[in-house]
Amino acid sequence: MEEAHDLLEAQRRQALRRLASLSGDFHEVVAASRDSNADDEHDPEGATIAFERSQVTSLVQQVEKQLAEIEAAFDRLAAGTYGVCEHCAQPIPAARLQARPAARTCINCAQLGTT
Ligand SMILES: [Zn+2]
Which stretches are zinc fingers (dksA C4-type) (predicted)? Predict the structure, then answer.
């Protein structure tokens, strides 16, 4: 599973870069809110900043979740259970693993919404 390892590694790098750029955005938004000395509750501009901040936060959470999935895939790789559907224990097709190296289930189970 050399290839899976490389794919996961590439995804992890990508996710970490994304996280770094998002936290850069986050600091900018926070700095902007500090500069304007805005009152989040009553100032319309403050409300926008609060909204942007929550947008960035939810993006960060998405990337963190993705990273956790990737880490879990590394664990399965180490345990020798990588590429096996967690739900039905059937092998996950290589094409799916190519597209989504951190996939935990086969396409059938994913479509059934068991993930
Ligand atoms: Zn399955």
Answer: 85-109
Who's near 88: CB < 8 A, 6+ residues apart? 105, 106, 108, 109
Each residue's pLDDT, cut to its tens digit, for the chain (115 residues) gives 578 999 999 999 999 999 999 988 878 877 877 776 555 556 677 788 888 889 999 999 999 999 999 999 999 999 999 999 999 999 999 999 999 999 999 999 999 874 4
Q: For the chain, which residues make up each domain, given as ranges?
A: 2-82, 83-115
DSSP line for 52-94: HHHHHHHHHHHHHHHHHHHHHHHHHHHHT-TTB-TTT-PBPPH
Distance 72 CA to ligand 1 centre (A): 17
Please give the distance, rounded to the nearest whole angstrom, from the Cα atom of residue 96 to the centre of ligand 1: 12
Query: What is the CA(6)–ligand 1 centre distance, in A?
Result: 24
